[in-house]
Design goal:
Structural class: alpha/beta
Number of helices: 11
Number of strands: 13
CATH class of one domain: Alpha Beta
Bound molecules: uridine-diphosphate-N-acetylglucosamine
Strand content: 15-25%
CATH architecture of one domain: 3-Layer(aba) Sandwich
Largest sheet: 7 strands, parallel
Helix content: 40-55%
Oligomer: single chain
């Protein structure tokens, strides 16, 4: 079976995707510099799948190191490129870190794909590229106009999408699938891998589970005066295992080579929006654990509401994200309990 290079493969979405790839018979080599992940993730992947993926501790922006890697693994047939910095607030404070890391690693990979004849790329993008879509564009599909990015992080996703388009336009051998994720949550049902936020979590679900576990005193809900039914923001929360499976479908499609355009863009979401309040309540209902919360002011840069129209991915990839929310929230809670020995 084909070998897939997974950059950022010990990270949150990467590790779940490696599990799904191996379960479908793919061979995997992970490249990760462990800047925001942990080597023990490999133990979790091995425990779940019975196979330890090859692992290389490298910075994938480093051309010389990556060139050697491609030479060592001449059987790489496709790349899934997750490796990137992803903290919005940090990107505002350290824009150059984001531009050099996120853009630099993609440039290195594209050059090496051409040098080593690897033609298929799956790229991790984000619904952040849509900004706040007009209500007429909700749920948002792939044809919705992109909006000026609100952070350097978001801007790197837009720039990278354009770099991929330009490079594929100039080189007809190259193919890419650009996957725009909505809000990934949850953990593998075994609780052997999951999300490992660094320090105080910025994202909603890890903050909810840490509050439920008593690590944080109180969840702050950022604003209840938005123009939504309960006043809190709305997002499309997608189970990380459903998201991971979409990557396998995208790789299958690229390698099969039939009927696909040179660059394809897919929204990966459930098609249903949940408010912050609905998520907090659903978590308490699913787990039976109380989450103390308070309403505070809006968080700067937050978008009021966005959720996906995933029809293209449903039809073209033959994929849908349909794990019930209760199950997803339980998986997040089981993972948190395991981390805290509860
Ligand atoms: C954003 C981006 C997403 C990006 C991600 C990276 C958008 C629409 N989404 O996610 O593309 O990949 O950042 O981190 O731009 N909230 C609270 N209390 C908390 C934490 C969050 O109320 O302690 C609320 C937020 O205000 C928001 C919702 O929960 O309404 C989700 O927030 P978060 O999990 O941070 O994700 P996004 O900001 O949507």
């Amino acid at each position: 079976m084909a070998r897939i290079l997974v950059t950022g493969g010990t990270g949150y979405i990467g590790s779940h995707t490696v599990v799904c790839l191996q379960e479908q018979g793919y061979d995997v080599v992970i490249v990760d510099n462990l800047s925001n992940s942990n080597i023990e993730v490999l133990d979790g992947i091995e425990a779940i799948t019975g196979r330890r993926p090859d692992f290389e501790n490298l910075d994938c922006a480093n051309y010389i190191h990556m060139d050697r890697l491609f030479a060592r693994y001449p059987d790489i047939e496709a790349i899934i490129h997750f490796a990137a910095s992803k903290a919005i607030g940090e990107s505002v404070e350290q824009p150059l870190k984001y531009y050099s890391n996120n853009v630099g690693s993609l440039l290195t990979l594209l050059k090496l794909m051409q040098a080593h004849g690897v033609n298929s790329l799956v790229f991790s993008s984000s619904c952040t590229v849509y900004g706040q879509p007009d209500t007429a564009h909700l749920p948002v599909d792939e044809t919705a106009p992109l909006q000026p990015a609100l952070s350097p992080y978001g801007h790197t996703k837009q720039i990278n999408e354009q770099i991929i388009r330009d490079t594929c336009y100039a080189d007809s051998n190259l193919h890419a699938a650009i996957l725009r994720y909505f809000n990934p949550i949850g953990a593998h049902p075994s609780a052997m891998i999951g999300e490992l936020p660094n320090g105080v979590p910025a994202n909603l679900l890890p903050f909810v589970t840490q509050t439920a576990a008593g690590v944080r005193k109180c969840l702050k809900i950022f604003g209840n005066d938005y123009n939504t039914p309960d006043g809190t923001c709305i997002r499309d929360y997608i189970y990380v295992m459903d998201l991971a499976k979409a990557h396998v479908k995208a790789v299958d499609r690229m390698l099969a080579g039939k009927g696909r355009a040179q660059v394809e863009v897919f929204n990966l979401g459930t098609g249903r929006g949940w408010s912050v309040m609905e998520i907090v309540k659903a978590f308490m209902d699913a787990t039976g654990v109380r989450v103390p919360y308070e309403i505070v002011g809006r968080r700067e840069g937050d978008i009021e509401q966005v959720w996906a129209n995933p029809t293209r991915a449903n039809k073209v990839l033959g994929w849908s994200a349909d794990t019930p929310m209760e199950e997803v929230l339980m998986s997040a809670w089981n993972w948190e309990k395991k981390l805290r020995n509860l």
